[in-house]
Amino acid sequence: MSRILIFTELFAILVLVAMKITVGVKSLKEAEYFFANGAEEVYCGLLDLPNNRLPYENFLKPADILPVIKLAARTGKKAFLAANVILKQRDYPGALKLISGMAEAGLSGVILRDPALLAYFKRKKFRFHFTLSTLANCFNVRALEFFSGLGISRIVLPMQMMPMDAAGLIKNRFGIDTEVFCQAFYYGINVDSRCELPCPQDGKKEPGRYRDFTCLLPFKSRQGIFHMPMPHQDYMLGAFYDYYKAGVKHLKIARWPNTPREIDLFLKVRRLLGLLEQGTDRKVFIQKGLRLDSKPLEYGKSFTFKPFRS
């Protein structure tokens, strides 16, 4: 076999398993940092267009996002907008006007959850890069076929899915790309649409705020008090590894109120991807991952915003 053929096959393997990092941002400064340090995409939200984050994790107006869009275009990257909640029908025309206007300005795509809104866009012949949010809870190929008919280009896999159960979604016949949250460090215990902001806890420590999330509440049973269980870190690292090997193309890091913690997570994820790209086997990957971070980030306990400092 010639060296050229060997190189071509190795390159094809690398392309097959390569993952692009998508990061949620709250400011141009954050977008500049993540783009400069390896992120291929960023996404953000607008205060006046409902999305599943806290108000101060959003940009105030569309004009504030334009510099992020221009930065993405200048650097060969992409910028997306999140609109991943259920809107009222009377708000559809306004959403279409806003999103189509930003598309003309260079926005790469929009993250949606509502099938009725997607159907409205289809009726209006508005074609765009639509990413189906994890909040849509698309758990099987039949559901994916339905959303494919509404024009989606990518799906963010439900956080509660195990890689083995996601195989049909990842290797789908519709040409739809897949994206997954960085499960090595956090995990949604509950089905996403039933929990406004998943915050995994073991019930042993009381959070300072937002104590009424389903995943924090004690449940009475015959055996006593029950709290939602949290997967072990080795399982979460294994899921990260398996999704990579299964061919998921995009890795998502959510917007966080605390920028330094988001940067810390981003750098750890980048380290893990480096191990995978080196061909590290599953056992060694988990061992090294545990040394990188020995316990899941408990991101439901800290909502203090710290401005970005370069």
Low-pLDDT residue intervals, each spanning 5 or more residues: 1-17, 196-203, 299-306
Please give the domain count.
Answer: 2
Terminal CA distance reads 50 Å
Radius of gyration over alpha carbons? 20 Å
Structural class estimated from helices and strands: alpha/beta
CATH class of the largest domain: Alpha Beta
CATH architecture verdict of the largest domain: Alpha-Beta Barrel
SSE order, one letter for each helix or strand? HEHEHEHEHEHEHEEEHEHH
Number of E strands? 10
Number of helices: 10
Helicity, in percent?
Answer: 25-40%
Fill in the CATH topology of the largest domain: TIM Barrel
Dominant shape: globular
Question: What percent of residues are in strands?
Answer: 5-15%
Mean pLDDT: 83
**Most strands sheet:** 8 strands, parallel, barrel
Report the CATH superfamily of the largest domain.
Answer: Aldolase class I
Strand order of the largest sheet: 1-2-3-4-5-6-7-10
Write a structural description.
This protein has 310 residues and is an alpha/beta fold. It has two domains: 13-187 and 231-292, TIM Barrel (Alpha-Beta Barrel), CATH 3.20.20.70; 197-230, no CATH class. The chain contains ten helices and ten strands. It has helices spanning 3-17, 28-36, 62-74, 92-104, 115-123, 141-148, 167-170, 233-246, 259-277, 282-292, and strands at 20-24, 41-45, 78-83, 109-112, 130-132, 152-156, 177-181, 219-221, 224-226, 250-253. The strands form two sheets. An eight-stranded parallel β-barrel has the order 1-2-3-4-5-6-7-10, surrounded by five helices. A two-stranded antiparallel ribbon has the order 8-9. α6 links the parallel β5 and β6. α8 crosses α10. Mean pLDDT is 83; it is low at 1-17, 196-203 and 299-306.
